[in-house]
Amino acid sequence: MAAADEAPIVRQYHDSDREQVFQFIREAFPPEDSARVLAQWAWRCEGSPFTLPLGPAVYLLWLGERLVGMAAGFRVKIWMGGAVCDGEGLGIWVVHPLMRGRKLWQRAQTGRAAQQVVRSPIVLGWTRLPKRRDLRLGARTDHLRPLIRVLDAGPLLERFAHSRAVGKIGAGATAAARLVSYPFRRRSNNRDGKVVRLEAFDDRVDVLWERARRAETAMIIRDHRYLNWRYIHRPDAKYLLYGFERGAELEGFLVARSTTYEGMSWGYLVDFLAPENSPAALSSLIDTAVYELRRLGATAVVCYLTDDAARSVLYRRGFFPAPQRNPIRFVLLLPEGSANFKRFTALSSWYLTMGDGDLELSP
C-alpha cells in the first residue's frame, strides 16, 4: 500500500506491464467499457504504424509499486502546414476509482516524472469533461458541433418524446422534408467519375493525400499505412469504404459506419478527403454512403468536421448543425513557446473528422 504523501510518478508503458495494465483496466472501467478497451488494446495502443521509434503513447501513473492511473492513445504523423510532426491521439485518461480526488496527475506533472516518458510534441483528443480540467493541464479546447441528416424522424421523436403519436408525425415530417429539400440535394455532376467500394487503401490514396492536403492547415496524415490501420485492422468494428475514381486515379475517399445510438440504428460519416476543388467527388461519396446507411436502417447520419469546403458540401446534401446537451470539445496540447505552432492553436486551423483521435472508437 502506497503512502498517502508519496510522490506519484509517470513512466511509459512496456510489454512487461501488460498483465498489470489489463487488471487495472478491469478495475477502473465498467465491464462493457473495459471489454472494449481490452479488445482494442493491441491494435490501438501498440499497433499503429507510427508507434516506433518513440514507443506506445501509453503513460502509466504509479504511486509506489501500485498502478493508479493511465493515459493511453496512439501515435500519428501530422501535417502542420508544410512540416511533418509526430503526434498522438490521446483518448483514455483514467485514475483508479479508489484513488480519485487526490490530484495525482497534477502532482506528477513536475519533477522526475517528466524524465520517464517520451511524448509526442502534439497531442490531440476529444472530451466531454469540464473545460476547467483541460485548462489546468495546459490544453486548449474548442467546442465542435456535429452535423446531422435525419433519415427517419419517427424513431427520433418517439425516443425523445416517448410518444408513438408524435413518432408518426415525425415520420410524415421526414417524407415532407425529402420533397422540399430535393432540389437542393440533386445528384452531382460526376464528369465521368464513379463511386466504388474499396476493400483496402492502396498507394493511390498516397497520391490523393499529396493533392488534397490543405496547404496551410494541420491534418493527421492520411496515407495508406494510417488508413488501413485505422479502418481495416480495427478488431471490433467494420467500416464502409468508398472511393471516387476518375479513370485509374482516386479523386476522393469516404469512410462510413453503421452502429447504434440509444437503441436506434445510426450512421456515421467517419472520415473523408477530397481536393478542395472537387466538391462533386465529395458530394457523390456522401450521397452513396447516405443511401447505403438508409438501406441499413439508419435513423440519422452524423459527422464531425472543421473543413469549410466539406461543410458546404454537407449543407447542400441536407445536413444541418445538431444540438448537443453535453458538447464535445476538441482538446489540443502544443509545445509551449514554439512560434512555429502558434498559428495552429485555433480549431479553424485544423482539418478534423470524427476519425481523428478517439471520438469514434467507442460504440
What does this structure look like?
By secondary structure, the chain is α+β, with helices and mostly antiparallel strands. It folds into 2 domains: 9-120, Aminopeptidase, CATH 3.40.630.30; 147-152 and 184-325, Aminopeptidase. It contains 10 helices and 15 strands. Strand 10 (240-246) and strand 11 (249-261) form a beta hairpin. It is globular, with a radius of gyration of 22 Å. Residues 163-169 and 175-188 have low confidence and may be disordered.
Supply the key terms.
363 residues, alpha+beta, Aminopeptidase, 7-stranded mixed sheet, 10 helices
SSE blueprint:
Blueprint: E1 9-12, H1 18-28, H2 31-46, E2 58-63, E3 66-80, E4 83-95, H3 104-108, E5 122-127, H4 131-136, E6 140-143, E7 147-150, H5 153-161, H6 164-181, E8 194-197, H7 204-212, E9 218-220, H8 224-232, E10 240-246, E11 249-261, E12 264-273, H9 279-295, E13 300-303, H10 308-316, E14 320-321, E15 329-333
Parallel strand pairs: 4-5, 12-13
Antiparallel strand pairs: 1-2, 2-3, 3-4, 3-9, 5-15, 6-15, 7-13, 7-14, 8-10, 10-11, 11-12
Low-confidence stretches: 163-169, 175-188
Backbone CA Rg? 22 Å
The H/E string reads EHHEEEHEHEEHHEHEHEEEHEHEE
Question: Tally the helices: what do you get?
Answer: 10
Let me know the average pLDDT: 87
- CATH topology name of the largest domain, in short, is Aminopeptidase
Which class do the helix and strand fractions yield?
Answer: alpha+beta
Query: How many strands appear in the DSSP assignment?
Result: 15
Instruction: Based on Cα principal axes, name the global outline.
Output: globular
